[in-house]
Amino acid sequence: MSESNEQAAPEISPASSALSTFSDELANVVQQASRSIVTLAARPRQSATGILWREGSETIVLTADHVVEREDDITITLPDGTEVKGQLIGRDPGTDLAAIRLGGVELGADNVPAEAAEGAKVGNLVIAIGRPGSDGPRVSFGAISALDGPRRSWQGGEIEGVIYADVTLYPGFSGGPLVDLAGRVVGLNSSHLTRHSSSAIPVATLRRVASTLITHGRVQRGYLGVGTQQAQLPAALVEKNGLAQDTALLVINVESGSPAEQGGLLLGDLIVSLAGQSVTDAETLRAHLGSDKVGQPVAIKILRGGEPRELTVTVGERK
Predict the structure, then answer these.
(1) Do residues 194 and 243 both lie within one domain?
(2) pLDDT score at 136
(3) Which of 32, 121, 180, 317 has the smallest count of CB within 10 Å of its CB?
(4) Residues 32 and 90 placed together within one structural domain of the fold
(5) Catalytic residue among 34, 36, 92, 96
(6) pTM above 0.85, yes or no
(7) Which one of 216, 240, 257 terminates a domain?
(8) Is 73 a catalytic residue?
(9) Residue 12's pLDDT is what?
(10) 248: containing domain
(11) pLDDT confidence of residue 1
(12) Is there a catalytic annotation at residue 174?
């Protein structure tokens, strides 16, 4: 009797089978989501990424503002490889978002607007997808590590809640989506928004800013033209002036020709309130300088030499 040289195929454990299935599902998610991801050439060096985004009746491209260095020479490569010219609709450095109109092209079945999802949770698995070149999408996989509540960026933009994820944003990933395991966009990746290199702008902010940019071409923010730093108020000064705060903003610089200079603010002034709202630090000052204040005269209460004064300043628009 001859012995068979055939060997039995190795058994695949249930765990290995599940991982293999999960891996295939991730690849399918990337393939599906990539139908909404474009390559954006709007700066001299590294191309970046953008998202096909439906806003009202129009499909536009949303991307990160900091990757748009050229406003009049923008080339967009669609998911199917078609190259089209892009026209800048508007930009908002405060939220690091820019909206771009597609020039004269009908989107085919391989180029579809992104599907969005709100309600991201810490621990959700996510995929950062970039398309910085012609060799297809690139990805990084991880989980949402933190959600930052409503805040203002260092440039004064209002963010509904920054998303932090333990994914790697490789060169050219900014402007691309952070997607969930259904391929839906939960945020737009930006390496510029915060000091944390892997952060994303949430869908609520994308919708609000995209709508504003399409309607107005910009997001208005108030501007005084002062440099400030937080100052602790002596207890005696707080008591003397009946203040309900123990900090204010010390004016350390006044820009020439600025609204602050025209309104009479001087070096050494302590800004206590603006339009009846307490000013305790730079964050609260930015919060009070919303679009509704642009072009409007507002009352600014200050302490000068320990004595209270009230000035009227017409708020400018931050450029």
Answers:
(1) no
(2) 85
(3) 121
(4) yes
(5) 96
(6) no
(7) 216
(8) no
(9) 64
(10) 222-317
(11) 46
(12) yes
